[in-house]
Amino acid sequence: KQEVTQIPAALSVPEGENLVLNCSFTDSAIYNLQWFRQDPGKGLTSLLLIQSSQREQTSGRLNASLDKSSGRSTLYIAASQPGDSATYLCAVQNSGGSNYKLTFGKGTLLTVNP
Amino acid sequence: DGGITQSPKYLFRKEGQNVTLSCEQNLNHDAMYWYRQDPGQGLRLIYYSQIVNDFQKGDIAEGYSVSREKKESFPLTVTSAQKNPTAFYLCACGTPAYEQYFGPGTRLTVT
To answer: Do A32 and B97 touch (CB under 8 A)?
Structure first.
């Protein structure tokens, strides 16, 4: 059974700092890994999708890496801003079975202080 | 505008009543999903559908039912058999093995 773990559970940083969020998964048989952002009481916004054949994806100040063999992914946020404050969720789409469901971690709550 | 919508945003029901949550998408995706989110837990899959008139149980389907009569719509009914229905419900759509897109969610409170 796939399990996804995110570390740390919460992180508080001053504005302008670069930071790294970590995600690990137990089963490397995945199609892809997706990073999401969730604001309080809102739905999920997709940030980056990394296919299993890829090593990293970049969007603006965000860079996500994937090491499928070790079951790890990182989300790097450069020059953090107060508007980056949110919960960040990592999810993997399993290639075993037929439902293509996402298995989620519990998230990292990020607070960027002005 | 293309996207995935859910309604209502907030829903309040008395215990013992069935309630239906709406999910509509105009992204032309075949696959649709219902997840449940509880505080301190990751999202969990309730039901999914990969094609019209076909759907499958996810990890926590007990007490829920769905239908998929149209490609654009995938309503979820929370029945009185669901023991802990109070939660945040999220609908998603996508192409299998590719990105999933989520709606804004419905917060259901049952008292």
So the answer is: yes
